[in-house]
Amino acid sequence: MTTHTTSETSPAIRLGLQANLAQFSLLVVVNALVGGMLGQERTVLPLLADDVFHLSAYTAAMTYILAFGATKAVTNFFAGTWSDRYGRKPVLIAGWLIALPVPAMLAWGPSWGWIIAANILLGMNQGLTWSTTVIMKIDLAGPERRGLAMGFNEAAGYVAVAATAMATGAIAEHAGLRPEPFLLGAAYVVLALGLSTFAVRETRDHARFEAARHVTPAGSEHDAELTTGQIARLTSLRDKALSAASQAGMVNNLNDALAWGIFPLLFAAHGLSIAQIGLLAALYPAVWGAGQMLTGWWSDRIGRKHLITAGMLLQAAAIALVAAGTTFGVWATAQILLGLGTALVYPTLLAVIGDVAHPAWRARAVGVYRLWRDGGFAVGALLAGALADAYSLTTAIWAIAALTAASGLVVALRMYETHPRS
């Protein structure tokens, strides 16, 4: 690995996973703790809505996902802008400071309004911390291994989601739905704040180093001098790859809102125990998380577009299988397939953004993409809840399966291949 210096007196800045292994590995650990904060809710909160707070309407029960998704989506946008303006590390620390009261609010909040407020703070935490760890890993990895870097990042986060969902389900089975399951989250936030404050180093200079050597093709509109508004329009609408990635990301997280808020209620309605529901809630993100270490690397080898298309279509088939199933075995198979489909898509979409966006405004492009992607939580909560209230749980699931298949076809028809080797 060649060492490059910005001047004779400045410290060496090197791009690549091997050159930045210690910091990259530390950021993987931090992102695992980010995922754990989300995982503490996956099994327990849908059951809390039903058993403790007695919310009879599905739309009302999904309000915590709506609050989380809307807040996280908006915070993602600002995370990219702020990390360019103030640096990555201050944004990361701010995200963990915001998370400090969340476990206590979930564990002892006396009304559903407290749960919604906790999820607003959690959305801010996830938007600031997850976005920033993504940006920092892209900064460190350089152009050659973005897919692999995003695979490690997302794998760490979602394996932690799965492990924590399973752990909280087991704790709830023996100790009750509150407060014990949320003590894990309290430990996560304290550890993550300490690591982010005392061990994580700033990476913004790595992006500036790459930007100084970035060659923009003649006639391209992807130059370094773009306003935030221009970046938002380019990422959302004008660039075919960026806009296709943005819509696929939104539908992907719409699916996650369905799996988070509706699937546990469907499983409970068919008589599954809390422990079984916890296992199913963990199986999908476990396969998703572990699979990304392979799929991110794979996208560096064969390109991005076809993996994204296949992943969206596989997710659609898995969701349809959930709607058609009535037994633990069928649902376990569906959760595995859903995890595989999501693993094909999730790190690959982020790699597309890294491929296309100029290093000078890449953080803001990631923020815009994640605005759309995590807006899927809010859209999914509203759509799935409304359809379940008006018709049934299975109708909501069938409708979202069809929407996911349509999203995969949009990628197939609109996205161009972005990986430089392809």
TrEMBL record:
The keyword Cytoplasm does not apply. InterPro entries: MFS, MFS_dom, MFS_trans_sf, MFS_Transporters, Sugar_transporter_CS. Residues 20-419 form the Major facilitator superfamily (MFS) profile domain. The keyword DNA repair does not apply. It is found in: Cell membrane. Its main location: membrane. Pfam families: MFS_1. The chain crosses the membrane at residues 21-38, 58-79, 91-108, 114-135, 155-176, 182-200, 257-275, 310-330, 336-354, 397-416. Keywords: Cell membrane, Membrane, Transmembrane, Transmembrane helix, Transport. It is a multi-pass membrane protein. This is MFS transporter.
